[in-house]
Amino acid sequence: MIQIEGLRKAYHSRGRTVVAVDGVDLEVREGEVYGVLGRSGAGKSTLLRCVNLLERPDAGTVTVDGVDLTALPERRLRQHRQRIGMIHQHFALLSSRTVAGNVAFPLEVMGVDRRERAQRVAELLDLVGLGDRARAYPAQLSGGQKQRVGIARALAGRPTVLLSDEATSALDPETTASILELLRDLNRRLGLTILLITHEMEVVKRICDSAAVLREGRIVESGRVRDLLTRPGSALGQEIFRLGPPPDLPGTTIVDVTLPDDSAGRSFVADLARRYDVDVRILAGSIETVADGQAGRLRIALPGSAEVNEAPLRRLREAGLAVEVAR
Predict the structure, then answer these.
(1) For residues 144 and 171, is the Cβ–Cβ distance under 8 A?
(2) Cβ pair 304, 252 in contact under 8 A
(3) What's the angle, vertex CA 111, arms to CA 105 and CA 117, rounded to 5?
């Protein structure tokens, strides 16, 4: 659905060049929610704006639904942008227009007649749970309600792709949860492909099927969220489980064991102790809800070196657990 290859974007100011996006490759499959996670200044917003060519990249291609947007003349690009909706961090609503007027604005630009506009606006406000607020003005709305208006407006042109630019970072945790639930519901009901950028791990955990970690304009890892959790050395896995650095325990092998959803309840500690007659120490653990399921990571210490513990470690891997020797 979205294919990004070799994307590069730099800014030049006062004799300095700042590379915001540096050779990014990214693939978002149709119908999935894909999150790009990064800290402030990592290049997330520039990357997102390059997807709909609000920022034109210096190099690389952006293909959406089989069409290379970077090769289109301006007129055809405007037509294809109608299939890409965008929601903003600070809502970007027109204060002089009502809720209904804000949602209707892109339809007016597209030349949709008044009757059809009114019908579409009513449908969209019902869809986002604001059917009773059509005549209100943005100043009369809460932050969550404003973002719901922004989402309805982004859906006005019946897009196949929805871009989200830090859509929940200005909201409190409870409101954030409700907006993320709405986005996931729209993804499933409408078949929307959603590409979102965020600095909040909770967003990735709650609704993303796939994710990428962006640092200094470059992708350091990407893939299905569940696959990343079991990848040795995964930056995303470390951020989600947050077990910290392993302690220095001479004479032991410290192991991080990641338990996918189907094995989260297995008592592998008791199995190892019984089968190999070893004293298994539990040092730390975390269970997180990720991508509509649960995953866990347990840090254990086994007496002896990794070579001595070769058989127990092999036993864990044969059981389908992801095993990483931390020290």
Answers:
(1) yes
(2) yes
(3) 55
CB within 8 Å of 96: residues ≥ 6 apart = none
Could you give the CA distance from residue 38 to residue 230 in angstroms, rounded to a whole number? 20
Q: Residues of the chain with pLDDT > 90: what percent?
A: 73
φ and ψ of 137, to 5 deg: -105, 155
* Structure-token pair, residue 174: 């409870």
Residue 260 · residue 317 · CB < 8 Å: no
Domains belonging to the chain, first-starting first, are 2-229 (3.40.50.300), 244-325 (3.30.70.260)
As a whole number of angstroms, the distance between CA 323 and CA 25 comes to 29
Summarised one tens digit per residue, pLDDT across range 195-216 is: 999 999 989 999 999 999 999 9
The full DSSP string for 237-284 is HHHHH---SPP--TTEEEEEEEE-GGGTT--HHHHHHHHH---PEEEE
What stretch of H or E contains 152? helix 143-154
Q: Model pTM?
A: 0.91
Structural tokens at position 288? 């997180």
